[in-house]
Amino acid sequence: MWEDRFNRPDYLFGTAPAQFLTRRAEWFAPGQSVLSIAEGEGRNAVWLAQQGLDVTGVDYAPSAIAKAKALAVKAGVSPTFLQADLFDWVWPEAAFDIVLGVFIQFVGPEDRTTLFDHMKRAVRPGGLIMLHGYTPKQLDYGTGGPKAEENLYTEARLTALFEGWDIALCDAYEAELDEGEGHSGRSALLDFIARRPG
Ligand SMILES: C[S@@+](CC[C@H](N)C(=O)[O-])C[C@H]1O[C@@H](n2cnc3c(N)ncnc32)[C@H](O)[C@@H]1O
Q: 3-state class of 162 per DSSP?
């Protein structure tokens, strides 16, 4: 499905970063290593590389990876892009300062737990998991995201999955998104940042 959605000349989610990254820019610093999972067409990886971070982006759609590489060349930065299914990939352990998931709500509760467990192990002790996605209120707006309510984020769902972690930010809010055809219009969003203990 994703391969078909990305098989178009323009960028489905635009070429500018998700507003989450610029809204939360104080959490990023040059030299940090960041793993951006389900990176898509490269907009977030490219922006983070432009800020001086050492970026690895993973996605399973070949057309997305090709567009991400083209975007990076155009921007004059060199993130690493890997094509892999996150459920088959051999994840690096305790390797990244930040593991980032922007609009990764293609998973329901069971796979979400599996995916978050991979993400948690990939962050170094003291490092961050950063998530950005839609809340159930988004179903009223229909301006992007999955239709399955159980895939969406609530404070209760996320905090329950990060027991023992320091929840640094859990902020549900509404905003007008202008992020390509894929995410456009009034949106109900949730930003979440948790720090790995140790
Ligand atoms: C809503 S898009 C978000 C893309 C990107 N994070 C962004 O904000 O522009 C979801 C992405 O998840 C990727 N994806 C879905 N399932 C995946 C899997 N099992 N392994 C790797 N990537 C996957 C899709 O190819 C797609 O690029």
A: coil
Q: How far is the CA of 87 from the centre of ligand 1 (A)?
A: 12
Confidence check: pLDDT of 1 > 90: no
Structure tokens at 66: 């090709």
| CATH ID of 2-195, from 3.30.70.3040, 1.10.1520.10, 3.40.50.150, 1.10.443.10 | 3.40.50.150
Domain ranges in the chain are 2-195
Q: Which H helix or E strand runs over 193?
A: strand 183-195
| Closest ligand 1 atom number to CA of residue 102 | 6
Report the nearest atom of ligand 1 relative to the CA of 18: 8
Q: What is the mean pLDDT of the chain?
A: 97
Region 64-77: mean pLDDT is 98
